[in-house]
Amino acid sequence: MSGLPRRRHRSLAVAALLGGILLLGACVADPPVGSVSDEISPQSTLVAERPAYHDKLVVVRFRVTQCGLVIVGSGFAIGPHTILTNRHVVAAAPAADIQVETWDSRPLHVVRAKVSPDVDLAEVTVSETLPDVATLAADDPPGKTPVVAVGYPLAKALRLAPGKTIELLDGDVLDTGFRILLTSASVKPGNSGGPLIDGTGTVVGVVFALTIGDETGLAIPITVVHKTLDDGDFITNYTCGNVPPGVLI
Fold this sequence. Notes:
This protein is mainly β. It has helices spanning 6-18, 87-90, 222-231, and strands at 21-23, 26-28, 45-46, 59-66, 69-79, 82-85, 98-101, 107-108, 110-115, 122-126, 146-151, 159-169, 180-183, 195-197, 203-211, 217-221. The protein is built from 3 helices and 16 strands.
């Protein structure tokens, strides 16, 4: 597709999106959070020891009981006690039902969670002091930028999935209300809320879905992340009956 004219390339991307998307907060009965499987995409790399970029980024795994379901996903530290993930990962769950652990299975204790009513993002506060916080890019990356999706596909071991950015699309394509960053990185259910990083370990987006069919990865662009965090319009008074639209429950 790299040789296609931009307009043709864009029309194919839009067509893929209109074919349907899958939010990546996997719904499972009892995920084997401590196991490793070779069945996960061969395009990703298993992280069996402390990640080299861990001096810049702490990526955690979520297991959340919400509205009678168990949802698994990923997240990353953006402050000494703050983790960013997707809204549909934590949704209506109280703090007691949100389990968070590091790549080497150390538990973190959740104090509270709050979600954005407009963007698929959530902030989770933990009592422990996180050793490192992510560096967020100032601007969205151009097309064909090498990136890596970091997370816990299928709630198993931490994996790195390399790829490239494809393009930015307006939110009206999926009626999300926010722009979407397309990537060729291979993401799976469980990657929701994980960071999309560039070659320096800087976060350029937050993974939240993939297209059904060609499995193009979808991320929330970093400029949208900045605006959401700066606006601070997060809510905590949510229940299974008033979860914001678009949440996977």
